[in-house]
Amino acid sequence: MSSVIGVIGGSGLYTLDDNEAAEPTALITPYSDEPVTVFTSNIASHNVVFLPRHGSSHGTPPHRINYRANLHALAECGIDFIIAVNVVGGISAQMSPGTIVIPDQIIDYTWGREHTYFDRLEKPENHIDFTWPYDKSLSKVLAQTTLSLGLPLKSGEPGGVYGCTQGPRLETAAEITRMKNDGCDIVGMTAMPEAALARELGIAYASIALVVNWAAGLTQETIAFGDIASTLDEGMAGIKRVLLATIADL
Ligand code: HPA
């Protein structure tokens, strides 16, 4: 059966369509005067709606992204589920640069972001269950595809706690020590409130994340984001293969 699949791309993944043939559509939402631009294409007989999280010119930093508008726009496209792509720093020992992680948990350290559609509680269900923030079966499919392509998914299955920080600055060494003590395996800036808004909308959501650096204080070096380009390019090429193969198998 053909599905409508939402893919949210982050740093390093600005299109799923190498031929640039995807159709742009600007969608107005109740959450912004600015339209949200999505790119629609047909892949393996599925309708794929690609949303560049940081905007079509890639310039919106994580704390300024209008997550509510983005997710609302995807919902308007009638998507059946969302695969999100994230770029992260590695905290736990096995999360070395180049590793792929399909996280199964989140700790939210962000603040001040518009993070809910339920600013007025209309029913008890507005308190969404978020015990497991990622869709387990979609995560499993992503993990199986990653492994079948021979790509480096640590532990061979979904798992890992994503600590989401506010950004855009990177963390201090002490913040990373604290996050490690809290149980975070990876650190990024974009998982939240995205994952929670998808749950509020009732849309299954999973993430595939690429580790591009050791988090602050874990090596002797300071973190130069400009220097991670080759890890990012190579890793994202792998993630794109996972996305396309997953879509083809659905
Ligand atoms: N911290 C936060 N976000 C990130 C990092 C990091 O070290 N690397 C990539 N995204």
List the helices and strands and how they pair.
Blueprint: E1 4-9, E2 23-29, E3 32-43, E4 46-52, H1 67-76, E5 81-90, E6 100-101, E7 105-108, H2 136-148, E8 161-164, H3 173-182, E9 186-188, H4 194-200, E10 204-214, H5 229-249
Parallel strand pairs: 1-4, 1-5, 5-10, 7-8, 8-9
Antiparallel strand pairs: 2-3, 3-4, 5-9, 6-10
Helix pairs in contact: 2-5
- By CATH reckoning, the class would read Alpha Beta
The helix/strand series, from N terminus to C terminus, equals EEEEHEEEHEHEHEH
Whole-angstrom Rg: 17 Å
Helix-strand makeup class: alpha/beta
User: Mind describing the biggest β-sheet?
Assistant: 10 strands, mixed
Q: Any idea of the CATH topology?
A: Rossmann fold
In total, the number of domains comes to 1
Concise structural overview:
This protein has 250 residues and is of the alpha/beta class. It contains five helices and ten strands. Hypoxanthine binds next to strand 5, strand 9 and strand 10.
Q: Your description of this structure?
A:
The chain is built from five helices and ten strands, in the order ββββαβββαβαβαβα. The protein is of the alpha/beta class. The chain has one domain: Nucleoside phosphorylase domain (Rossmann fold, 3-Layer(aba) Sandwich), CATH 3.40.50.1580. Strands 1, 2, 3, 4, 5, 6, 7, 8, 9 and 10 form a ten-stranded mixed sheet that branches. Helix 3 (173-182) links the parallel strand 8 and strand 9 (186-188). The chain is globular, with a radius of gyration of 17 Å. The chain starts with a strand and ends with a helix. The site of hypoxanthine has 12 residues, from strand 5, strand 9 and strand 10.
